[in-house]
Design a protein that fits this description.
Helix content is 29%, strand content 25%. The protein contains 17 helices and 27 strands. Helix 16 links the parallel strand 26 and strand 27. Helix 4 packs across helix 5, helix 4 crosses helix 8 and helix 9 packs across helix 10. The chain is globular.
């Protein structure tokens, strides 16, 4: 082990590490002059054979996009934005599948110096509208398949002036900008915006416990942080073919894509949803050397492991993020995939996976590993900011001074300020996650400190789901809590007090579920709805979610569902 990896000795690298070394790998004089798009794309374009992206459509067709083509088409997209009047700093959001156009638009938006954001297609009109309106998005990019959903959302988003639509066979509606036609006519050269490390680049939404989702803002310096993780944790090398199953609608998508492109590696993406048989086939057919996914997907592959029997794997590394990776899955991976799945930990706020396992470091299955070189992390007492003893539970905290650490929650200064605590030797950012550190410095996840629900790797704020439930005429009061689930870690369970005149029934429960699923989001809807006559409340009238959570937990333990 060790010598042939980018990180051969974790301890030594942590001692020697300097962010300047990563900035020095950039083409421009970073961090003063830094544009993500230039660093991840244009500088690899001279090598005509170098592939940026292999994309497999739902029908199984393969599209190959070399870096030179990505550079040219993203130039055209930047020109298009400029001709539409999109200024530096304006927000451009996407709502579309994993098709080549999506990647071109992300890079092109950054070239223009505009701010790129994306909403995953699981969200419905309500979920989309909230996010686009919150940050006054000016342009939305979508496909003809999604156009109706977007139209419904845009009724509540006055800031959006133009929609760019990729024609997937239905014809682009009048008034929209047709992606294909307009790109074709656009100039192939573009002078990339002369941004610096502190200019705004990305805006991704994350759910909160006490209020609506928050926009997490990242600046161009972010790229140095993700480049470090891709180099040290995912061990990216030229020649790798890296399948990150994450969508561009979550920050994990850009982290893996842009971080790997910084080093000139090739990304692989599949347009379709998770399907074990399809995945097994893709792993068989394509020379994928690195796989990055979430524990739920690995668990579902394990459930269907016979599908992997005759698959010829090229994997040399696998990674995971988003929720606890159980030791059993790690062992299974070693036996069946032939690689140790490396658990990594991060948040949209930390911009990246920052407490990780590394191919050259001993893995303790069940542990998230250790902080990447260049990030100081600890377990602290959230009230005092003091570092706690090994073995003691506290909050995961980081010194907020690394490049991919977020700039702010979009226009929510109080929310931003509330994440920090002044400790005896400086400031810590508090993650809201509970963990402990063992004697040897490995971090072990224990749970969330707040009410945020982790389900299938998604972070779900109860507030947003409860608000959506409240929109149903039959719902007088609602509270949602996590209910432990063997495959999804948790499911969202809703307790509902029906409005007057409504009788609890299975069909009413189904109706409520469907409404949340279609209006808000397909991953946030409650998979279980239970009616109650009243909610447990505190003396001040707040719903006691912990009590409901205990009920749901007991129910899960009893296997009573
Ligand atoms: C939350 C963040 C960089 C983007 C990743 C997703 C949970 C994340 C792990 C892990 C246990 C994990 C935490 C965290 N989480 N990784 N390895 N083990 N829990 O970012 O969607 O903002 O979610 O996911 O609770 O706070 P996100």
């Amino acid at each position: 082990m060790g010598d042939n990896h980018n990180l051969s000795d974790y301890e030594a690298a942590s001692e020697e590490f300097s962010w300047d070394d990563i900035f020095a790998e950039a083409d421009w004089e970073a961090p003063g002059d830094l544009n993500i798009a230039h660093e991840v794309c244009d500088r690899h374009a001279a090598d005509k054979d170098r592939v940026a992206l292999y994309q497999v459509s739902e029908d199984g067709d393969l599209t190959t996009v070399p870096f030179w083509q990505l550079a040219e088409e993203s130039n055209q997209f930047a020109n298009l934005l400029e001709s539409m009047g999109v200024e530096r700093g304006d927000r451009v959001f996407s709502y579309m599948p994993r098709i080549p156009e999506h990647y071109v638009a992300m890079v092109g938006t950054l070239k223009r110096g505009a701010v790129w954001g994306s909403v995953n297609e699981r969200f419905g009109p309500e979920g989309i509208a909230y996010r686009l309106a919150d940050c006054d998005t000016s342009v939305v990019l979508t496909t003809t398949d999604n156009r109706e959903t977007v139209a419904e959302a845009l009724e509540d988003v006055p800031s959006v002036e133009q929609v760019i639509t990729v024609d997937r066979g239905d014809g682009v509606p009048d008034g929209d900008i047709a992606f294909g036609d307009r790109l074709e006519g656009a100039e192939r050269n573009y002078e990339t915006a002369d941004t610096g490390g502190d200019d705004n680049a990305l805006l991704y939404y994350t759910s909160g416990t006490t209020g609506p989702a928050k926009g997490v803002l990242h600046e161009h310096r972010w790229i140095a942080g993700v480049a470090a993780t891709q180099r040290y944790t995912m061990d990216i090398k030229p020649g790798d073919c890296y399948w990150s199953t994450a969508d561009l609608g979550w920050l994990t998508g850009p982290i893996n894509t842009l971080g790997a492109w910084f080093w000139g590696a090739t990304m692989f993406t599949y347009e379709g949803e998770f399907d074990p048989a399809e995945w097994a086939e893709l792993l068989d057919e394509h020379p994928i050397t690195i796989l990055f996914s979430v524990p739920t997907a690995y668990r579902m592959l394990r459930e269907n492991e016979s599908l992997l029997d005759d698959v010829s794997l090229d994997l040399r590394l696998a990674g995971s993020v988003g929720e606890p990776l159980s030791p059993g899955v790690v062992t299974w991976g070693e036996e069946t995939l032939g690689v140790t799945i490396l658990d990594t930990y991060g948040q949209t706020e930390t911009g990246n996976f920052i407490i990780n396992n590394y191919p050259s470091m001993e893995v303790r299955p069940g542990s998230m590993g250790k902080p990447i070189p260049g990030v100081e992390a600890a377990i602290v007492d959230p009230d005092t900011g003091e570092v706690v003893e090994p073995g003691e539970t506290g909050q995961i905290a980081e010194r907020p001074d690394f490049p991919c650490f977020f700039a702010e929650y979009w226009e929510k200064p109080e929310k931003t300020a509330s994440c920090f605590v002044d400790g005896p030797d400086g400031e810590w950012y508090l993650s809201g996650d509970l963990a402990y550190r063992d004697e040897d410095g490995y971090f072990w996840f224990e749970g969330r400190a707040d009410d945020v629900i982790i389900s299938s790797g998604y972070r779900i704020g109860p507030f947003e789901v409860e608000s959506a439930l409240g929109e149903h005429e039959a719902v007088a009061e609602a509270a949602v809590v996590p209910k432990p689930d063997p495959e999804r870690t948790n499911i969202v369970k809703a307790y509902v007090v029906p409005s007057e005149g409504y009788e609890p029934s299975d069909s009413l429960a189904e109706d409520i579920k469907t409404k949340v699923k279609t209006d808000l989001a397909a991953h946030e809807y409650p998979r279980e709805v239970e009616f109650r006559e009243e909610m447990p409340k505190t003396v001040t009238g707040k719903i006691r979610r912990t009590e409901l959570q205990d009920l749901a937990q007991a129910e899960a333990e009893a296997g009573d569902d």
